Amino acid sequence: MPDMPVDIGGLGDDPISAVIGIFLLILAIPALIVITILLAELLILIALLPLFLVLRAVAPVPWTIEVRRRWKLEREEQVRGWGASRARIQDIASELRLRAPQKPDAAEPAADAV
Fold it and tell me: Which domain holds residue 32?
């Protein structure tokens, strides 16, 4: 047996193989373009992440705490910092618990029940 390289795969050299190859190329080119764009965007985001983390730590930007009841906005406040935000959310929640009307107990019968 002669020492010849083994041909694994390939499209062949007939016209049907050429049509299949062109079809696969037409499918592969947009996919390669999209993958290249997504990888470039990912690399940019990874490169900028340390900068954003430092900026977030040095100059915290205030964000909005929203209080909604049944999708209706009741109140919103601007808070700066994670600790302050957590504390303000707990304060608002305790205020709302104190202000909320008490639901009647299921064990007690209603006054108008016959």
Answer: 14-59
> Is 95 among the domain residues?
yes
3-state secondary structure of 7: coil
Give domain status of residue 36, yes or no.
yes
Number of domains present in the structure of the chain: 2
Using DSSP's 3-state secondary structure scheme, residue 51 falls into helix
Residue 29 belongs to some domain of the structure: yes
Q: Whole-angstrom Cα distance, residue 47 to residue 41?
A: 10
Over residues 34-80, the pLDDT tens digits come to 999 999 999 999 999 999 889 878 887 888 999 888 889 988 999 98
63 φ/ψ angles, rounded to the nearest 5 degrees: -125, 170
Cβ neighbours for 49, distance < 8 A, ≥ 6 positions apart:
none
- Cα(18)–Cα(11) distance, rounded to whole angstroms? 7
Q: How many helices (H) and strands (E) does the chain have?
A: 2, 2
Whether residues 44 and 68 fall in one domain: no
